[in-house]
C-alpha cells in the first residue's frame, strides 16, 4: 500500500479576463498529486502560475474550473476543512513588530479556534529553534528568525501540509541553509511540504519530487533524480599526461569545450556515445588519462531543455 495522496488536483484552470478579448490562462489544466510525507517542489519562473496555485489552495483566489482535494476534503464542498489542513508560509514577512513570538502564536492559534488546552506553542517554538527568543519583540528578531516565525505561525493549527511560497527569496546563503534544515526537520516529523521556488538549487537540495510549471502549464513532473537523469548532454573533463591532438577526435555528438594545460573538456549526448568509447579513443593516441571529472546535469539543465521543447 503506497502513501496516500494529501493533495490531488485535476484539470485545474484559472483564467483572468483582463479585457474580454484576451483572457490570461494563469493555470492551464493542471493535474498533480502530492503524497503524504514528501517534500514536493513546484518550480518555475516568476509569473508561471505558482502563486496562483497557492492562492487557490489558500482560498484567496477562486479557481475557474477543475477539482482540488486536500487531505480528503473537496475544496468546493469543504473549503474550511481544506484551509484547516494547510499551513501557508507567505513570501512577505508581515509580522506585528510589537508582539513577541509566544504571544503571536497564541493569538494566531486563537484565530484558528484552537482551544487553550490544545495549543502547542512551546513545542512549535522549539521546532523552529525560537524557544530562546520566545519573549523578544518581533521587531528585534533577525531576518532568519522572522522567517522561522512565519513557519511557526503556519503550524499553530497543526496542519498536515505546510506550503512554503518562495521560502528563501531574497535570503542570504547561510540563512537559506538554516531554513532548509528546519524544513527537513519538520518533514522528518511527518509534515508534508509543498514549496514553490525559482531557485533550482533549492529544489534539488530539498525536494523528493518536482513539478515544473511554465506559463500555467505543467511541463514536467517526476522524482528529482529522474528529472536530472533526463538531461541528455553530459560534460566530462579529462586530465591527461600530455596534450591531446583534438583534430584526431571525431565521434557522434562529441563537442570539444576546451583543451588547455593537458585538460580536455568535452560534452556529448548520452544516447549517442558512451564514456568508455571516448576513453578508448583517447588511449589510441597513446595518451594516459590521469583523472576524470564529470559535471553532472542539474535541474537548471533540465529546465532549459524542457522550456526549449
What does this structure look like?
The structure is a single chain. This protein is of the alpha/beta class and 309 residues long. It has three domains: 157 residues, Rossmann fold, CATH 3.40.50; 67 residues, no CATH class; 66 residues, Alpha-Beta Plaits. It is built from ten helices and 14 strands. A six-stranded mixed beta sheet has the order 6-7-8-3-9-10, sandwiched between helices. A four-stranded antiparallel beta sheet has the order 2-1-4-5. A hairpin with a 2-residue loop joins strand 9 and strand 10. The model has no long low-confidence stretch (mean pLDDT 89).
- Written as H for each helix and E for each strand, in order along the chain, the element string is EEEHEEHEHHHEHEHEEHEEEHEH
Which CATH C-level class of the largest domain is it? Alpha Beta
Rounded average pLDDT? 89
Q: What topology, given as strand order, has the largest sheet?
A: 6-7-8-3-9-10
Structural class: alpha/beta
Amino acid at each position: 500500500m503506497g502513501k496516500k495522496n494529501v493533495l490531488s488536483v485535476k484539470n485545474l484552470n484559472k483564467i483572468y479576463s483582463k479585457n474580454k478579448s484576451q483572457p490570461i490562462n494563469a493555470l492551464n489544466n493542471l493535474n498533480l498529486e502530492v503524497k503524504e510525507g514528501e517534500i514536493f517542489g513546484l518550480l518555475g519562473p516568476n509569473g508561471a502560475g505558482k502563486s496562483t496555485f497557492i492562492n487557490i489552495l489558500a482560498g484567496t483566489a477562486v479557481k475557474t474550473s477543475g477539482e482540488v482535494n486536500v487531505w480528503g476534503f473537496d475544496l468546493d464542498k469543504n473549503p474550511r476543512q481544506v484551509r484547516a489542513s494547510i499551513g501557508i508560509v507567505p513570501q512577505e514577512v508581515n509580522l506585528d513588530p510589537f508582539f513577541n513570538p509566544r504571544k503571536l502564536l497564541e493569538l494566531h492559534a486563537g484565530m484558528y479556534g484552537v482551544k487553550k488546552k490544545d495549543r502547542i506553542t512551546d513545542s512549535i517554538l522549539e521546532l523552529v529553534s525560537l524557544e530562546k527568543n520566545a519573549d523578544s519583540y518581533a521587531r528585534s528578531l533577525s531576518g532568519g528568525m522572522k522567517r522561522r516565525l512565519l513557519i511557526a505561525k503556519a503550524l499553530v493549527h497543526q496542519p498536515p501540509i505546510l506550503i512554503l511560497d518562495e521560502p528563501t527569496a531574497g535570503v542570504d546563503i547561510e540563512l537559506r541553509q538554516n531554513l532548509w534544515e528546519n524544513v527537513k526537520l519538520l518533514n522528518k516529523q511527518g509534515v508534508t511540504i509543498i514549496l514553490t521556488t525559482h531557485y533550482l538549487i533549492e529544489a534539488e537540495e530539498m525536494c523528493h519530487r518536482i513539478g515544473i510549471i511554465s506559463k500555467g502549464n505543467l511541463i514536467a513532473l517526476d522524482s528529482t533524480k529522474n528529472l536530472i537523469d533526463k538531461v541528455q548532454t553530459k560534460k566530462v573533463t579529462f586530465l591527461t599526461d600530455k596534450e591531446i591532438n583534438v583534430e584526431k577526435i571525431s565521434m557522434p555528438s562529441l563537442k570539444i569545450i576546451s583543451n588547455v594545460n593537458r585538460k580536455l573538456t568535452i560534452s556529448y549526448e548520452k544516447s549517442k556515445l558512451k564514456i568508455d568509447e571516448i576513453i578508448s579513443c583517447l588511449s589510441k593516441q597513446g595518451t594516459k588519462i590521469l583523472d576524470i571529472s564529470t559535471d553532472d546535469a542539474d535541474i537548471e539543465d533540465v529546465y532549459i531543455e524542457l522550456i526549449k521543447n
